[in-house]
Structures are given as C-alpha cells and as structure tokens.
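User: Sequence in, structure out. Go.
Assistant: Echoing your sequence, followed by the structure tokens.
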Amino acid sequence: MTAIFYETLPVAQLRFEGEWRLKYDPSWEARRAAFPVSLTMPLRSGTVGADRLLPWLVNLLPETHLAEIGQRLKISPQDIVGVLENIGRDTAGALSIGEPCKAGINLQPVPDQAALERILDELPAKPFLVGEHGVSMSLAGVQEKLPVFVGEDGNISIPVEGIPSTHIIKPDTKRLAGSVENEAFCLALARVCGLEAAEATIGQAGKRRYLLVKRYDRFTDPQASSGRSLSVNGSFSVP
C-alpha cells in the first residue's frame, strides 16, 4: 500500500489488486475542508480504478529522463507508483506521495553561483537531484527543470523532506537556443496584455543562464502559526 498525504493528514491509499486502485481515507472524507486529488476522482465515489488513477499519476512525472531516474533508484521506470514513492513528496499542488512532509523548514542552501552551475550541469544525468538524501520532487513536462526554495533574502535552497518548493529553475539548453529569454519575453508580454502569467526573472550561474519562475501553485500564508501551512495549492509560511 502507498499512502497520499496533505501535509501530515492521510488523504488516500493506493493498493494493487490486479491493478492499481485508489481509495480515500474515511478520516479525510469526513473533514469539512476535504477536496479530491483530481476532479476525475470525486470524494465518496468508492474505489477508483486504474483507468482514472494512472493518467493522474503519470501526469505527476516528467516526460523525459524517466530511464535515468529509474536507473538511479534501481526501479523500473514503468513502475509509476514505485517511482513516485521516491520522488513524489513535492509534486504539483500540495499532496505528498509515500511519506508526509516532515515538520519544520528543511532546506539545503546552495552556497554560491558556482554550486548552482554544477547542479544545472548535472541535471540531465541526475534529474530532480534524484538520489540525493532527503530530496524528493517531481514535475511534469519535457523541459529540464528543478524545483527550489527562494527565501526572502533571494537565496536559493534545495527543499528536502517534502518541504514545498517556491520556484522552478528552467536552465538554458543547447537544443533550443534562447529558450530562457524567449520564455521570459512571452511571460512579460502576457502580463502586459492583461493575462495572468507566472512571475519570472532571468538569472546567471557561471556560464549557465536560467529562468527562475515563481510557482503559481504556492503562496505564503501570513496567518499560519505553526511555521508552515499547506493548502490545496500548496501554500506554506516561513516564520
């Protein structure tokens, strides 16, 4: 069995019964503020079959580098649940797969731009820093990216133990020249046109340029008293 959590609250269980199935935890369904993990899997609808469950799980994983992730974890990349048990503690939204978030703000600071450059250079072979102690994160998409935590001082850290990231780094790539500048321009143009678009800035780490994008599924909750508060779209507060 594999559990899904909202902060430390059990939300649902994944069980293999000839195929993977999802069943919501009764304590979660009884909560007034409960929400479904997906609109395709409503609460109090009974056991959810693989036809609706697997597409949702697949969309929590990247579309590339699954072979490298599986190799580092020594897990078949076809084992979707097995992979997510290892890299699914910080995914889209506020849910953690496998283990709940640990209390506190657990971060590994990136000491300088040279260290960040090394991390970006290693991403193709070590996507999402898979295998690093305490690091567990995953995002969908083809482009190489890395979820990070950006403090009020602007310093970048790697979130560990399921702590939600605040931003996403999208490094430059030789396969698509000018990708950083192009995405930054398009996002700025969208905002000028009155469209809702993510906030983004261009950064430089040694010879690598990158786009630093503020996550739209995260926001800071100033009312939180426990030091960290998650919501449906993954908010949290830092004291």
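User: And one key feature?
Assistant: The chain has a mean pLDDT of 89.
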